[in-house]
Specification:
Largest sheet: 5 strands, parallel
CATH architecture of the largest domain: 3-Layer(aba) Sandwich
Number of helices: 10
Helix content: 40-55%
Number of domains: 2
Number of strands: 9
CATH topology of the largest domain: Rossmann fold
Radius of gyration: 19 Å
Shape: globular
C-alpha cells in the first residue's frame, strides 16, 4: 500500500504530481527494464521525480562522456567511431565515473541496464542495487502498441490507430516509422527475451526482482511501480 504522504499522486499518465518526494535514506540504486514499447519512459520519469535519483541510460551516458572527453568517454569513442559495440568493461567504467558525481550519492535509476548476467555481476561490484523493477507486457500487446503507432512528420507527435487516434485535420499526413512493423518488433522482442530471461532469474535468486503488470492502463502501472519503490524505505 502506497501512503499518500510518501508517494504523493502517481497520476496524470502515471507521473508523480506535486513537489513532494520520498525522503529515501538508503543509498541504493534501482534497475528498470522491460521490452520495447512497455512504457519504461513514463515510469522512469515518475521514479526520478519520486526518489530524486538521476536516471542513467547507457546511450545518454556514452554521449555525455564522449562530449566531455572523460578517460572512459575517449575509450568508448574509439569503438563507436569504428562502428563497434562498446565492450562491457568500458561501459562499467563509464558507470563508475558517473556514480562519482554528486547527484548519485543516494543511488541512481539504471534504465535498461544491465542486459546480461555478466553486466549485472560487474555492476554489483560498483553499485548497490536495492530494487529491480521489470515491466512485463505480453508480446501480442507490444506488437499491437508499436505496429499501431503513427507519427505526424510536421510536429513529431505520436498517435495510435486504436488507443490514441489523431484528429481528422492531421490524420491524412501521418506516417508509420520504418521500424514500427511486426517483423522488426518480433525480432527485437526475441533478442530482449533471450537476454532478459536469464537476467530475471539472476535477480530473482537475490530477492531483488519485482515484476510489474504492464498490460494495464498507465495509472495502474504507475501505482504498482510506486508501491515497489516504497519498499526501499
Amino acid at each position: 500500500m502506497v501512503s499518500k504522504s510518501n508517494a504523493g499522486q502517481w497520476a496524470r499518465a502515471g507521473v508523480l504530481i506535486g513537489s513532494s518526494r520520498f525522503a529515501l535514506t538508503m543509498s541504493q540504486s534501482i534497475v528498470l527494464f522491460g521490452p520495447p514499447g512497455a512504457g519504461k519512459g513514463t515510469q522512469a520519469r515518475a521514479i526520478v521525480e519520486a526518489t530524486g535519483k538521476p536516471q542513467i541510460s547507457t546511450g545518454d551516458m556514452l554521449r555525455a562522456a564522449t562530449a566531455a572527453g572523460t578517460p572512459m568517454g575517449l575509450a568508448a569513442k574509439v569503438y563507436m567511431e569504428a562502428g563497434e559495440l562498446v565492450p562491457d568493461e568500458v561501459i562499467i567504467g563509464l558507470i563508475e565515473e558517473r556514480l562519482r558525481q554528486s547527484d548519485a550519492t543516494d543511488g541512481v535509476l539504471f534504465d535498461g541496464f544491465p542486459r546480461t548476467i555478466p553486466q549485472a555481476e560487474a555492476l554489483s561490484e560498483i553499485a548497490t542495487v536495492g530494487l529491480v523493477i521489470a515491466i512485463e507486457v505480453p508480446d501480442r500487446a507490444i506488437v499491437e502498441r508499436i505496429v499501431g503507432r503513427r507519427m505526424d512528420p510536421e510536429t513529431g507527435d505520436i498517435y495510435h490507430v486504436t488507443f490514441n487516434p489523431a484528429p481528422p485535420e492531421v490524420a491524412d499526413r501521418l506516417i508509420q516509422r520504418k521500424d514500427d512493423n511486426e517483423e522488426t518488433v518480433l525480432s527485437r522482442l526475441a533478442a530482449y527475451h533471450s537476454q532478459t530471461a536469464p537476467l530475471a532469474e539472476w535477480y530473482r535468486a537475490r530477492d531483488l526482482y519485482t515484476p510489474i503488470n504492464g498490460d494495464q492502463n498507465i495509472a495502474a502501472v504507475g501505482a504498482e511501480v510506486a508501491a515497489a519503490v516504497e519498499t526501499l524505505r
